[in-house]
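Internal tracking record. Fields below are filled automatically when a chain is submitted to the structure queue. Please do not edit lines marked as system-generated. If the sequence contains nonstandard residues, flag them in the REMARKS field before resubmitting.
Queue: standard
Priority: normal
Entity type: single polypeptide chain
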Amino acid sequence: MTPRFLAFLLLPAALVAGDPAPHRFQGRIERFEPAFDDLVAPTAAIEKLAEGFNWSEGPVWFDGALLFSDVPENVIYRWRPGTTQAEVFLKPSGLLQPVPGFREPGSNGLGRDAQGRLLVCQHGERRIARYENGRFTPVADRFEGKRFNSPNDLAVRRNGDIYFTDPPYGLEKLNDSPLKELPHNGVYRVTPAGKVTLVTKSLTFPNGIGFSPDERTLYVAVSDGRAPRIVAYDVAPDGGVAGERIFFDALPLRSPGVRGSCDGLKVDRAGNVWATGPGGVLVISPAGRLLGRINTGEATGNCCWGDDGGTLYITADMFLLRVRTLTRGAGW
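SYSTEM-GENERATED OUTPUT FOLLOWS
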């Protein structure tokens, strides 16, 4: 697949929180279908905002700023518009007291609940928690009496239901960890009343998660090295799902020198899926066609919209990036 237009950008290095040494960054925007022009202008470019992180993840626009996780370092950072540095917002973020057995102890996916409060996927505490007024409140930490593996990412429906993925990435030895209590790596739903149900246990390594604008389709990224893909489900009126199918197969995009796999995802107001995958952020139509790619040149963790809903923020390994889009995120 040959892009018909490439936009390159190399910005001066900035010294920010994390590793004080600057890192060279060069990204490009690749256009595969004419419909991509309706989503990202031909003049758009990738802007580097901050750098020096171990593994940046799980961004969310919150209270006029961008929050994102550095999972191995057990930190949530905050980047404010107009600044060239990210500041520590919360540490520890995922493992509150030292406990052995975790390879990635920090927070991962971040989100907002139906009331706009901050939600945190905590690897180390093995739960979904709400953070407000300087303290964490557990939202979901067990299924049928057994602790979760390491909740990774979440999506919130308008009715307040929180859907989240639970792969073993926070645990040393992953599926072979002695801390693992559940035999599967599931996708779950927790209602505002606190009831936890298993949505599916059929996926090997569920990761990013999101809904179509009408909330009738649930998308889940599967970060399985042998079969990286995004699956889709029909959402039933009772909140359950059915009709599992492959929405996008990312395996053909993998090649030597192309970094990253299926990880986080978000959906825009027109139903296009902006999903991290091989090469950066893949922009996929509701019909499953690859329209374009924001090629970061790095393994890319996740993305979200911020500002007025038209700026896409991207966490790509050591970098925090952004791209101005012509669309807006669902819900904006």
